[in-house]
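JOB MANIFEST
job_type = single_chain_structure
chain_count = 1
residues = 263
[input]
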Amino acid sequence: MAPRLLLVGGGKMGTALLTGLLAADWAPIADLAVSETDPAQRARLEESFPGLTVVAMPIEAEDVLLAVKPDVAEPVLLTLAANGARRVLSIVAGIASARLEAVMPAGSVVIRAMPNTPSLVGAGVAGLSGGMAATSADLDWAEGILGAVGTVVRVPERQLDAVTGVSGSGPAYIFLVAEAMIEAGVTAGLTRDVSHQLVVGTLLGASRMLDETGEDPAVLRAAVTSPGGTTAAAVRTLEFKAVRSAFIEAVAAAVERSRQIGR
């Protein structure tokens, strides 16, 4: 019996989505299957998810979540189409839906998305866009999958490279900030454990304030920054070191790289 959803690619992002789907009770584990070429990763998946069907090569399935490297996406999808795939949710960076549709039978549905790794803990965010044959029902199907592991924003396909640069790669930026702040705390005399707790709690609290108050980040920052105070001194240093500009350039670099992958 064909699975309800075949995940092709059991790497970090595929595993994050699988974990999130199971945690959200999107489907019983018996209704899911994963195709993964790496024997070591297959063994890890089988150990982590008892009862999950894990195979080396794609099996028959109509609905597929494609989570492979960009350089193999089209040949893998060609094999999937031969095995009955007719609706594909692709989280492959940079590869346009038109390229994927070209290797599938006429009328097949391709939906592109760019989720991020916090999907692992049900706190992901994803941009979603439908290809030429995708209907509103198909978009609802894809949003149901990604919505089980976080927030979904529908955007025109031309904006998915920007989504990749902002939120797809975004967790790495935040983790880098966390690393730097923890190290700064240690340098200032805190133990690493205490510094870690303070930084993680601060990031969580600041994120909740952004989400729950709905205020502009600039307004919240100004509310914390008393004239002549400690925060003002810190923010002045960050602005002098062009941290804001560095983030803008970093996102632009990720967007451009996503565009290059798709060429």
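[summary]
Residues 7 and 34 are 5 Å apart (CA to CA).
The two ends are 38 Å apart (CA to CA).
exit_status = 0
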